[in-house]
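Hey, weird one. I pasted the Citrate lyase subunit beta / citryl-CoA lyase sequence into the form twice and got a warning about non-standard characters only the second time. First submission, copied straight from the form history:
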Amino acid sequence: MSQSESQNPPSRPARVRRSVLSVPAINRRALDKLSSLDCDAVIFDLEDSVAPEKKAEARENLRAFFAVAPLPGKERIIRINALSSNFGADDLALVAELEPDAVLLPKVDEPQDVMMVGDWLAEADVPEELRIWAMIETPRGILNAAAIAEAGRTAGSRLDCFVVGLNDLRKETGVLPQPGRPYLVPWLMQVILAVSAYGLEAIDSVFNDFKDAEEFEAECGQGVAMGFTGKMLIHPSQIEAANRHFGPAEAAIAEAEAIISAFAEPGAEALNVVNIGGRMVERLHLVQAERLIHKARLIEQRSLGAAAAPRTGA
Ligand SMILES: CC(C)(COP(=O)(O)OP(=O)(O)OC[C@H]1O[C@@H](n2cnc3c(N)ncnc32)[C@H](O)[C@@H]1OP(=O)(O)O)[C@@H](O)C(=O)NCCC(=O)NCCSC(=O)C[C@H](O)C(=O)O
Ligand SMILES: [Mg+2]
C-alpha cells in the first residue's frame, strides 16, 4: 500500500476534524448553541456527561434536535453508552434511527467491541456511510490499539477514527494530570502508530481546565506535533485555538505550494529529489504537500459554506 493510500483510504472522503466539540445531550441550551459555533464536528454525548436517570430524556433531546438542526458542514457523532450497560441498546437503536455521520463507542477494549456494532448496524440495514469511531481510553484499549485499528481494514468495517480519553485512562492507571503529559506520551504515540498503520485518524483527548487558555494552547501544539488530526473539546472557548493549531498554517501552505511547483517544473517528473532553498525535498514530501493543500481547500470550502448558510437554531 502506498503512503497516500494508508493515510486516506479511497472509499472514505477526507474530512476536516480540527475541533470536535462534545455536548451533553441532556443540555438543551448547549445544543441550541451549536449552529452558531465554528467547530468541525460535534459529539452528542449520551455517556458519562448524562446521569443515569436522564438518559431517556437525553435521547428525546437528540430526536428533537436532529429533526430540526442538520448542522450543515459539521460532522455529527453520537457517543453511546457501553452495550454492556442498561442504556447501550436503546442508544444504538437511536443511532440507527437518526443516522448521524458516526457512532462513538466508549471504552473500546478489543476489536470485537467494534465488530459487534458493525454487524448490528449492517443487520439493521443502516447505510454504510454511517461510520464507527472508537474511544481509546482503557489500559486494554491502549494495549490493543493496533488490533482494533486493524479491524478497520476488514471487509465492511465502518471504523474511521479513534478518540483518546485521558480522563478514563488516568482513572484506570493512576497517572496524574501534568503539563506536557510526560507519562502519557508513550501511550498516545502507540495510538498514533496504530492509526497510521491502518489508515485511520486519531483525535486527541479533552483538556478539562477550559479557563486555562495558555496550557490548552500548549497541549494543542503538542497534539499537532504528535500527529493527532484534531482535539476533542468540552467548551466553545476552545474551538478557535483548536482550529488554528490543527489547521495548516500560512507558512506550511506556502511551503507545500513551493514543493508542488518544484515537482511540476519541466523535467522534474524524472526526479525523486529536488533542492528547495537549500533543503532536500523528496517525492514523499510531495504526497504530504498535496494532502496539506487538500485539507486547506476543505477548510476554505467549509468557511465559505458556513458564511453562506443561514444560522438556524434548534
Ligand atoms: C464544562 C461545562 C459543564 C461548563 O458549562 P457552563 O458552566 O455552562 O459554561 P459556560 O457558562 O462558560 O458556558 C458558556 C456558554 O456556552 C455554552 N456551552 C458550554 N459548553 C458547551 C458545549 N460543550 N457545547 C455547546 N455549548 C456549550 C453554555 O450553554 C453557555 O451558553 P449561553 O448561556 O447560551 O451563553 C460545559 O462546558 C460542558 O458540559 N461541557 C461538555 C461536557 C462533556 O461533553 N463531557 C463529555 C465529554 S468529556 C470526555 O469524553 C472525557 C473522556 O471520555 C475521557 O475519558 O477523557
Ligand atoms: Mg471517558
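That's the output from the first submission. The warning seems to come from a hidden character in my clipboard, not from the data itself. Residues 1-11 have pLDDT under 50 and may be disordered.
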